[in-house]
Design goal:
Blueprint: H1 5-20, E1 21-24, E2 28-34, E3 37-38, E4 46-49, E5 55-61, E6 65-75, E7 81-92, H2 95-100, H3 105-121, H4 126-131, H5 133-148, E8 153-164, H6 167-209, H7 212-226, H8 239-251
Antiparallel strand pairs: 1-4, 2-3, 2-5, 6-7, 7-8
Helix pairs in contact: 3-5
């Protein structure tokens, strides 16, 4: 029994139309090549028609991609070998350029991030790498964004995640930090001694104007020591007290000077 082609043709057309239906998510765009030529506008999101084999569609995601840059061996400007890894945040801004201008924008961005990381960090000292990390992050982001702009890719942020120092450098930095703390401690101690000597000099000047003040200070110290009652106290008799008693004996009525 022969089947009429006119009966089968509508079913073939329906099946072809169904297979041509594509659904793109909100974060996706479809770059269409019609007979090898790029259509001026990407398709999506939502329901679109792709008429194969005339049309060929390439899906492009517009979400931010987090790229982990593997550890890179970097020699800083002061000849210190370190391992540095970073993380790069980028997204596709122009889906047409991302497909036409570069073969694989993810791989290209990854390789460019690695070479730029080694190049930029190799021009700074180790101290700057550890202390000026925010400035280096901004510099890396600007360089990568400028070089990926022709691909329709926007690099939003670059963060240096970890700096791995050699063991001998870690020990040297620990010794340096310890010496720095000792230096600050000695400076603070010397400043305290200077301030204390100035106050003692002022106190000595005040006591010199009133000789009896040293006697009162001795008595106050004796009172503080006697509060413990657990030690033998040897308290010297000040010369000023002897002079004070001698002056009192001279001024007493009916007394004869010795």
């Amino acid at each position: 029994m022969l089947i009429n082609p006119l009966v089968i043709l509508p079913f073939i057309v329906v099946l072809y139309l169904i297979s041509s239906i594509k659904i793109l998510a909100e974060y996706e765009r479809g770059v269409i090549f019609r007979l090898g030529k790029l259509l001026p506008q990407p398709k999506g999101p939502g329901l679109i028609l792709v008429f194969a084999p005339i049309d060929r569609m390439v899906r492009v995601g517009l979400r931010t991609v987090v790229l982990d840059v593997p550890p890179q061996d970097v020699i800083t400007r002061d000849n210190v070998s370190v391992k540095v890894n970073a993380v790069v945040y980028f997204r596709v801004m122009d889906s047409l350029k991302a497909i036409v201008e570069v073969e694989n924008y993810n791989y290209a961005t990854s390789q460019l991030s690695q070479t730029t990381l080694r190049s930029v960090l190799g021009q700074v000292d180790l101290d700057d790498l550890l202390s000026r990390r925010e400035h280096l992050n901004q510099e890396l982001q600007q360089i990568l964004d400028q070089r990926t702009d022709p691909w329709g890719v926007k690099v939003s942020a670059v963060e240096v995640k970890h700096v791995d120092l050699p063991d001998n450098m870690q020990r040297a930095m620990a010794r340096q930090a310890e010496a720095e703390r000792e230096k600050r401690a000695k400076i603070i101690h010397a400043a305290g001694e200077l301030e204390a000597s100035e106050k003692l000099s002022q106190a000595a000047g005040i006591i010199a104007t009133e000789p009896v003040a040293i006697t009162l200070r001795y008595l106050q110290t004796l009172t503080e020591i006697a509060a413990e009652k657990n030690s033998t106290i040897i308290f010297p008799l000040p010369i000023e007290m002897m002079n004070l008693l001698g002056q009192a004996g001279v001024k007493a009525p009916g007394s004869q000077p010795r």
